[in-house]
Amino acid sequence: MRRIIALLFALLVAIPGARAQTSAILAGHLVDPETGTVREDQVIVVDRDPATGTSRIVAVGSEVTVPPGAEIIDLSDQWVLPGLVDAHDHLGITYKEDPESWYYYFTVIMDSTPLRAIQSFSTGFQKLASGFTIVRDLGNNGLYADTALRQAIEMGWVPGPTMINSGIIIGTFGGQLFETPEREDTVYPEYLNADTDDEIVKAIRRNIHYGGKVVKVCVDCQAYPYTVDQLKLFVSEAANAGQRVSGHVQTVEGARRAAEAGLWSLDHDRALTPEIHTIMAEKGIFRAGTETPKADWSRVTDAQWEARLAGLRDAYEKGVLLVFSTDADYYIPGMNRGELSIEFIESWKAAGIPDPEILKVMTINGYRISETMDTRGPIKVGLAADIIATADNPLEDIEALRDVRFVMKDGLVFKRDGVVAPLAFFHNGPAYGWRKR
Predict the structure, then answer these.
(1) Burial zone of 159 (CB within 10 Å; 0-12 exposed, 13-18 middle, 19+ buried)
(2) Among 49, 133, 172, 332, which is 20 to 30 Å from 326 by CA?
(3) 437 domain residue, yes or no
(4) Which pTM value belongs to this model?
(5) 370, 401, 423 — which closes off a domain?
């Protein structure tokens, strides 16, 4: 029996690609967004298991020796840092020409879930190319196109960011739509109507069963918003499955109720007053403000822009947990979705947030809201290798993020010298991969 086991082990070792693949990144300038510091001439050693598609950083330091046979990745003239996070987007909304226009309703009515799954892959691909290695995908993906994409990424079938997806948005009758009596079912599958306690529990469990990783609720999208007790039920039922609740808020009263109920994040900024910010800071609630910049394409008025900047400054000064969140689910000529997402740094700059703080918001706070700090995000020994690099120092000029030259996701090089070369990502995952939810 021992001889058989020894023979099987020898055969396994002989299989090409069965051993861990090792890379050594020569980081000329290693940026730590959490402390706002830079370490010079560092070596990052990454082991990747091709059988599972997982990676691990095994060493970081200036005295680290490059292991024999390791692939050397020379970034000695670049600024190396962990991947970026978009804490609020919708990958499966079809491109439309105007932000928040009625084109959105064509997506809901006319586009199938398979088409939107392909749209989601395209969007995720573009965001990864711009350095976003984690995305919280918060609904509007048809009939679980977001789960399909997350599973495909996790199984190594397609390249894409780590996804924290919500499944179908839960809301009171009508969701964010305006129904007619003849077509009451138009709301589904964009939204799950849940008006009673039993319906709320059922909707949460349905989403989790079909692969949701965060619960998304429309707190006040209709004239009959959820009560504080109902929102507390969302929190407790999600917690029962180890999940958090992200709340779309659009009225001050809705935001107050959501904050009182202790939601994990409040999303969108127009209802977040200084009083709400104070509550959020006290309770440690994340602010995913989706601050659209003022530009020719954004249709943001001067009054809206000034209110947006004042709100973001107030939240920053009060110590609210801020995350970079775009809601950039539209088409702008000349930009792909990754480039459009980076465009949102203009709002943070205009609000006077220091560049090192913006970078921290786009990285460290993103890992915290996504709850990945113990598994991926920071460039630390034992964590997955999600690493990007820029030509200039983003701590001194956040605009450096407009030109991400290198992207490594889970130990695989997705982009090198500014060129995307993703073929290494396309492989069959482990046999058990399809079982994952």
Answers:
(1) buried
(2) 172
(3) no
(4) 0.92
(5) 370
Q: Are 165 and 214 contacting, i.e. CB atoms less than 8 angstroms apart? A: yes
> In the prediction, which pLDDT does 370 show?
98
How many C-beta atoms surround the C-beta of residue 319 within 10 A? 13
Quote the pLDDT of residue 179. 81
CA gap 255, 220 in Å, rounded: 8
User: Does 290 lie in the same domain as 417?
Assistant: no
Q: Output the CA–CA distances (angstroms, integers) from residue 207 to 115, 214, 237, 267, in the order listed.
A: 20, 9, 12, 19
Q: What is the CATH number of the domain that holds 62?
A: 2.30.40.10
109 and 252, same domain (yes or no): yes
Longest C-alpha distance within the chain, in Å? 78
3-state secondary structure (DSSP) of residue 292: coil
- The CB-based long-range contact list for 372-377 (8 Å cut-off, 24+ gap) reads 372/134, 372/162, 376/133, 376/134, 376/162, 377/82, 377/83, 377/85, 377/134
Rounded to 10°, the helix 228-240/197-209 angle is: 30
Q: Are residues 197 and 104 in the same domain?
A: yes
d(CA 330, CA 95): 5
Residue 265 CA to residue 191 CA, distance in Å, equals 19
Tens digits of residue pLDDT in 216-247:
999 999 999 999 999 999 999 999 999 999 99
Question: Is the domain of 11 the same as that of 158?
Answer: no
207 in any annotated domain: yes
Residues 217 and 303 in one domain: yes
Q: Are residues 250 and 386 in the same domain?
A: no
**Starting at the edge strand that comes first in sequence, how are the strands of the sheet with 84-89 ordered?**
84-89, 132-137, 162-165
Radius of gyration over every alpha carbon of the chain, rounded to an integer in angstroms: 22
Residue with tokens 């292991």: 67
Instruction: Please state, rounded to an integer, the average pLDDT across all residues of the chain.
Output: 90
**Domains held by the chain: number:** 2
Measure the CA–CA gap between 236 and 213, rounded to whole angstroms: 15
Query: For the domain that residue 250 is a member of, what is the CATH number?
Result: 3.20.20.140
Residue 436 lies in a domain: no
What domain range is 416 assigned to?
2-82+378-431
Rounded Cα gap, residues 109 and 97, in angstroms: 17
Low-confidence ranges of the chain (pLDDT < 50): 1-18, 429-436
User: Residues near 399 by Cβ (< 8 Å), separated by ≥ 6?
Assistant: 345, 392
Residues 284 and 385 in one domain: no
DSSP string, 28-67: EEEEETTTTEEEEEEEEEEEEETTTTEEEEEEEESSPPPP
Cis amide prior to 189 (ω within 30 degrees): yes
Give the domain-ending residue among 370, 397, 414.
Answer: 370
What pLDDT is recorded for position 5? 35
